[in-house]
Amino acid sequence: MIDLEQVSARALGEAIRAKKVSSLEATGAAIARLAAAHELTNCTLSLDAEEALSAAKACDGAIAAGKPAGPLAGVPLAHKDMFDRKGKIASWGARIRAEAPAAQDATVIARLQAAGALQVAALHLTEFAFGPTGHNYVLGHARNPWDPTRITGGSSAGTAAAVAFGAIPAGLGSDTGGSLRLPAAACGVCSIKPTWGRVSRAGAMPLAPALDTIGVIARYVEDLALMLGLLAGADPRDPAASTLPVPAYLARLDDPVRGLRLGIDAAVLGSAHPEVQGMLQRVTKILERQGLVTAACRFPDWQTLDHLVQLTQMPDCSAAHAANLRSRPNDYGPQVRARLELGHFIAAVDHLTALRARGTYLRRTLEETFKDIDIAILPIFADPLPTIAELDIGGGPTLQAAMARVVKFTRPINYLGLPTLALPVPRAGGLPNGIQLVGRPYAEAQLLAVGHAYQREVAPELARPLA
Amino acid sequence: MPEPTIDPQPEAGAGTGLDMPPERRHAAKAHAALLSAAAAKVAAELPLSADVDDFRRILMAEARP
């Protein structure tokens, strides 16, 4: 008997292909669980129940007829509502949307479909994916499935909430300043933010193209590996998509991790809340038990990295929205509006300085920070999980400082373009949180192998409101 | 021959045309100035040859798949 709430996407696909469970049954159950998850968390923006059930029936028919089936054949998934789907208009979590339905699927949607995956819903995101908390002043705030008064993290809020609840095993998100890692940490699940350029962005809503990265949120690291393997690779529709060969991530999950050197930057870690420092130390102990060896490391000046990523991001975001921000400013929520305005005040020469310096800082990080380590470990949130009310600050004067604290440990990594794996910390009965493992360029397979080893000791959990 | 006259230009600058209350405009300018100071420090250390494409080149060159 398969537990449809608990099962991984990989195992569910295997069971559907082996006719141990039908796609129709799995999809119907996912739709029902998504309704329950939505009631608790506001995770769903649109449900595609009839379409998904019809595709599930077709999938079951094809399998019964002995036709070839992909690794995700008949598996119900749902994704952040920012990817083009042919004939549909994505919400982008916003009032302002594309004027016409998409002419073709986003590359990531097309690649998952080619593997047989179904999409049962489009999920919540912060307006235009521009916000790290899950607040959305246009479509309603997302709520954490462990404690609905707490933030989900953002911007891939709906995907993390739905995955954590067990409505779906995995789904897509994006990360420009932390949007895959923050919701994964807040909801107690995993995510992979690949190296910038590893996954095509074609057909995904752009936020800041110099930083935007598409990735996966899942409860099981094996699903991150499976899906990244399907998504990654060259794409003529995205000239930034890397032509490097795609490793067999799933096959490499059991690569040895013993002896890998795990770097801790004590100066950076020291600026986190003591509870967060304690969480990171507990995770480090677990990784040591899996054979990793801890060592000291030192990132380039963290404050400078944070300034450089803002100089890169803010004008990039603001340029895309410049016309609408002038002609229909009231169609933006207060937080996104205030953040988009900021980009207009950054001088072009400063923006270009940040872009010109990016290679220098990446090289410095690889030559100095990673000189004696393989992977760096960092917090994701600087503080224990805040409430929705604590960060319900709209576009007010405390906005920049509050947002800066939330993305303190995430957005500098986007500037460096490095791959990161987010893992949940053991909760010990409390609220979830997470850590991130940062790798060298294109070292996703190594990160995933470490994450897989970690899950031997820290099993995935389903999120339910804490008593 | 009369001196050519130059039409007065409308005031231009950062944030022109944005409907912003003065306090938000002030806050945005102050934050941009903070970032600009950081950019100036970074720029002082950058070689003239630093290029926006360096980042992608290094990512590819240092790939560890």
Could you explain the architecture of this structure?
The complex is a heterodimer of chains A (467) and B (65). Chain A is α/β, with parallel strands linked by helices. Chain A contains 15 helices and eleven strands. Chain A starts with 8 loop residues before the first helix and ends in a 10-residue tail after the last helix. The relative contact order of chain A is 0.14. In chain A, the strands form two sheets. Chain A has an eight-stranded mixed sheet with strand order 4-6-5-10-11-9-7-8, sandwiched between helices. By secondary structure, chain B is mainly alpha-helical. Classes of the chains: A alpha/beta (467), B mainly alpha (65). Chains A and B meet through α10, α11, α12 and α15 of A and α1 and α2 of B.
Topology:
The complex is a heterodimer of chains A (467) and B (65).
Chain A: H1 9-17, H2 23-41, E1 44-47, H3 49-64, E2 76-80, H4 107-114, E3 118-123, H5 157-165, E4 170-175, H6 181-187, E5 190-193, E6 213-218, H7 221-231, E7 261-264, H8 266-269, H9 274-289, E8 293-296, H10 302-327, H11 334-343, H12 348-369, E9 375-379, H13 399-406, H14 411-416, E10 420-424, E11 434-438, H15 444-457
Parallel strand pairs in A: 2-3, 7-8, 7-9
Antiparallel strand pairs in A: 1-3, 4-6, 5-6, 5-10, 9-11, 10-11
Helix pairs in contact in A: 2-3, 2-5, 5-6, 7-15, 10-11, 10-12
Chain B: H1 22-45, H2 54-61
The main β sheet of chain B shows up as: none
Q: Give unreliable regions of chain A as ranges.
A: none
Structural class of chain B: mainly alpha
Q: What is the CA-CA span between the terminal residues of chain A? A: 29 Å
Query: Which strand order spans the largest sheet of chain A, edge to edge or round the barrel?
Result: 4-6-5-10-11-9-7-8
Strand content of chain B: under 5%
Number of domains of chain A: 1
Largest sheet of chain A: 8 strands, mixed
